[in-house]
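Supplementary Methods. Inverse-folding protocol.

Structures were first reduced to a discrete structure-token string of length 162. This string, shown here, constituted the complete conditioning input.
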């Protein structure tokens, strides 16, 4: 039996990077290592070895994430819902959407979707090479438009440029 996603008519289809990659210098990694090591030593001196291990693990995770190149995702908006790679989000699982446009035009507009999913309650989809106005008009027929801002986690990531 074919999935509903494959039987639906494609309205928009595009590919985009997960995020914009920013090359880090060796000095950045050295600074991260020095700060993490200093914090871990202070924690050990105060008798909190567990916090020292958490700080070192966090620094390693940040370094690995900073070195990782972005994946290119395939997005398909159909008359049944939104497909992101192999995941499919039908319109009835979407509670609201908004098109976010950035003032400085450094980044493309993004489709922000709130869903009923516990695992992915908020989707932020870059609209590279897609007419944002046409997508806004199409989605208005299927999902409630509700202006909303970026989630706190996305703002923190942007602040630290992860």
């Amino acid at each position: 039996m074919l999935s509903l996603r494959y039987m639906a008519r494609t309205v928009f289809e595009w590919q985009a990077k997960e995020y914009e990659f920013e090359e880090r210098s060796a000095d950045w990694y050295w600074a991260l290592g020095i700060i993490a090591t200093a914090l871990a030593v202070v924690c050990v001196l105060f008798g909190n070895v567990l916090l020292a291990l958490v700080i070192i693990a966090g620094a390693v995770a940040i370094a690995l994430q900073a070195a990782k190149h972005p994946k290119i995702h395939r997005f398909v908006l159909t008359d049944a819902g939104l497909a992101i790679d192999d995941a499919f989000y039908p319109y009835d699982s979407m509670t609201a959407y908004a098109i976010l446009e950035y003032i400085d035009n450094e980044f493309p507009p993004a489709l922000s979707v709130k869903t009923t999913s516990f695992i992915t309650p908020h989707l932020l989809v870059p609209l590279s090479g897609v007419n944002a106005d046409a997508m806004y008009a199409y989605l208005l027929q299927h999902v409630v438009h509700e202006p909303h801002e970026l989630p706190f986690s996305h703002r923190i990531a942007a602040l630290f440029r992860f």
